[in-house]
Amino acid sequence: MDNESRQRPSQNRFSILRVVLIFISLSYAKFVLANNAFQLGFGSITPHFVSEKKNYCNQWNNTGVIANKTNYIRFMSDKFGVSYMQGEDSICSPIEGLFFHNIFSDDGWWAYGITLGGYAYNPQNWIDHADETPEAIDAPAPVRIDYFGRDIVPVLAFDVSIRIVKGNGWSVRLNNLFTPIIFNHSLAFEWQF
Of the given ranges (76-80, 90-94, 143-147, 179-183), which has the lowest mean pLDDT? Predict the structure, then answer.
């Protein structure tokens, strides 16, 4: 199955999530006159720690390391923030999610904290992918929960970020999420105001 024919998660529910995210972001900007930052992130490198060959998409030399298309916006106000993300999962199936951030320490270069949230996906895409996977290769399966009838991949991660380039009111960040199961790394442009 090609990537264009993969089914997207329900758009109606995520339209509401987009409105809520915009409202939260505007509320933060209006009511919290603190250190605010906006990040526009892209790309995703996700190492999967597996002992056998899996049928991941965009995998580098059967290593379990995947490079996927992901875009996100993150709004931070002091130590708290929210992100909205769209992209692809380990089988290049469309995903969409919402994440909340609590940063414990930020020294100007390094930042550490916790990220909590999740992303929705269409489980039929995973069933189709498993059906198309050759028998000698294992089809991956997501960790998931049922959230009011939606399949959600929950995320609770240690959030570590480094500003690799800094300017006056802007930076380029390497954002990293570490869970016991999986890691994720992405780049983001940050504007501070």
Answer: 143-147
Q: How far apart are CA 163 and CA 188, in angstroms?
A: 9
Average pLDDT over residues 157-165: 97
Q: Is the Cβ–Cβ distance between 175 and 99 less than 8 Å?
A: no
The pTM assigned to this predicted structure is 0.80
List Cα–Cα distances, 176 to 20, 32, 44, 159, in angstroms.
Answer: 25, 26, 10, 6
- C-alpha 91/C-alpha 160 separation (Å) is 25
Q: Taking a C-beta distance cutoff of 8 angstroms, is the pair 114, 170 a contact?
A: no
Rounded-to-integer distance, Cα 152 and Cα 97, Å:
9
Domain definitions of the chain by residue range: 3-192
The CATH class given to the 3-192 domain equals: mainly beta
List, as one string, the DSSP characters of 50-107: -SS-B--TTBSTTSSEEEEEEEEEEEEETTEEEEEEEEE-TTS-EEEEEEEEEEEEE-
CB 118 within 8 A of CB 147: yes
